[in-house]
Predict the structure.
Amino acid sequence: MCPEVIRNNCMQKKFVTNLAFLLFLNLLIKPFYVLVVDLNVQNAVHAANFGLYFALFNFSFVLNIILDFGITNFNNKNIAQNNHLLTKHFSSLVVLKMILALVYILLAFIVGLVIQYDFRLMKMMLLLGFNQFLISFIAYLRSNIAGLLLFWVDSIVSVLDRSILITISCFLLWGNVLDRELDIMDYVYAQTVSYSITAIIAFFIVLSKTEFAKFKLTRAFTLMIFKKSFPFAVLGMLMACYNRLDTVMVERMLPNGAEQAGIYAQGFRLLDAANMISVLFAGLLLPIFSRMLKLKESVEQLVKTSFILLITPGIIVAVGCWFYASELMGLLYKEHIEQAAAIFPILMSCFVATSTTYIFGTLLTANGNLRELNLMAACGILINVTMNLFLIPRLQAEGSAISSLITQFLTALIQVLIAQSVFKFKINYRLLLTIIIFILGVILINYFSRKISHCVFSEDHRWMLNFSLMVGFSVTWAFAIRMINIKSMVRILKYG
């Protein structure tokens, strides 16, 4: 076997084995956080209060690009290809991140005044802004760890903040430590503590891998970093806008905007949880793609493997949520169940599109096709904002969900076409046909699962067994039609 094939298989093995560990840790921690802690906080503070928090969080997220300026993606790609640059860049980038944090907080304050946030909202926004700085700083530190291909360490750091937040939130929710009802600000403060501890630990991990002398920042280095990271910054800002502006527009445009934003958040919660898996894929793939492309190795097989691993559960989740929307929303929430159930399957269908984006977008980022990605993202904003302006006044939060669905699928398709053009991938008609057959099969499985009757559970809980059977049969269907090929997965794990 030729050296390139061996290296290729080693990279695939590194991806799959580290992905398994990463998923194991994250599936232990993050679903509990989203489905237990975050959910119970929303139920405790009610939809309108959580809607304000959710809109402000997304607003702070859109401005997040000022904090990062593309440094994290640039650094991840750069360190993966040039490990020796860690020591040279680390001390300067830390100083630069601090300066960007000050600019970010100032800009957030000015924008908050312009859109007339009151004192309470301004206080929450500024604290969420500080939390965004901590999140961004952790992401930068993790990009160094991942760039060194220390994926096991990165996996542990990836769940540390949520682990701490879960512990604090459980005390707030059920530990009787408050002599009053839980306020949404209590939750924001808990996030601040969790992110701060994680940032400190991650900082010293990275510091231990450098020959650190002192913090310094030169004008030449700053200009060089801004020049190289600027395309990453533009991409991050544009994608954040078309991914996160929905609830900001809902909250500002409607008379009952806070409540509608809260209902949107109810439908969005499981999508956010599912997207965590996609983010993990991208975090592993970016340095691996970068290393393989530098060595001029073929990435086609790894792209196919990662795409199938992500799109298969994506289809099962998306289709299942159309058939079981009311039951799932009723299980999770106490209010606005019918409205949330109308939004929920629309948003969950976005998972298929975002899964595709996280694979092909990451590949294009690793290859440096940022001009094409920025044009794609600019089109995404134009489509999303235009549709929101038309649909939100007519359909409220549901209109924003429809806008998001259309935007996500169009931008995902554009990225696939760009990747196919850049890398000259052959169109895999067999895979496309398999995906179509798989989708049709999952739809039929869902339909017949609704017809199953049994006396094991009461009528109110019967759907849970039906849903479980649907998932089981859908996974079996994926293996039966070789959507997922066990032999190829075993072959990948044997090499290296």
Summary: Residues 491-496 have pLDDT under 50 and may be disordered. Residues 3-426 form one domain. DSSP finds 18 helices and no strands in the chain. The radius of gyration is 23 Å.
